[in-house]
Design goal:
This protein is of the alpha+beta class. It contains 3 helices and 10 strands; from the N terminus they run βαββββββαβββα.
Length: 146
């Protein structure tokens, strides 16, 4: 399939809309789109990422993930994220570290020197939604390489 990539849309639940705004805008650098009192759209590297308030979580509620072993790390499942170019990925890693967000999997490079070489990192938003950001030196040839 050689069609150009199009933006995805994903919606997650959050415990607090203002807390989500601070995280996605201030830490991840997303711009805000439309919103209502119980949801807000963010531009996550050109993709529509929507946070929906789940009042049943309460102000301290946290989602939990299953952790699957990958390369000696516990990778949270489910997770979502974006594939970035290396400069964007490095800038995001530095930004997340600077803001003191806790990594589930610290930034590192997998498959070094191989066809599928990629940099990756995992962290959670304040509600516990798991996010992965990865980078390939050449997204077009490496993203789906076997």
């Amino acid at each position: 399939m050689n069609d150009p990539l199009t933006p995805f849309h994903i919606a997650v639940q959050v415990r607090d809309i203002d807390e989500a705004r601070r995280f996605y805008k201030d830490i991840l650098g997303c711009s805000e789109g439309r919103s209502a009192p119980d949801w807000v759209d963010f531009n996550l590297y050109g993709h529509q990422f929507v946070c929906h308030l789940n009042p049943n979580l309460g102000s301290a509620g946290k989602l939990t993930s299953h952790f699957n072993p990958v390369d000696g790390h516990g990778v949270p499942v489910p997770h979502c994220g974006v594939v970035l170019r290396p400069p964007q990925w490095a800038a995001l890693a530095e930004r997340v570290q600077r803001h003191g967000a806790e990594f589930v999997v610290e930034p590192y490079t997998r498959f070094e020197g191989q066809t599928g070489e990629q940099s990756t990192m995992f962290f959670l938003d304040p509600t516990g939604n798991a996010l992965e950001f990865k980078a390939f030196n050449d997204i077009e040839t490496q993203l789906f390489a076997v």
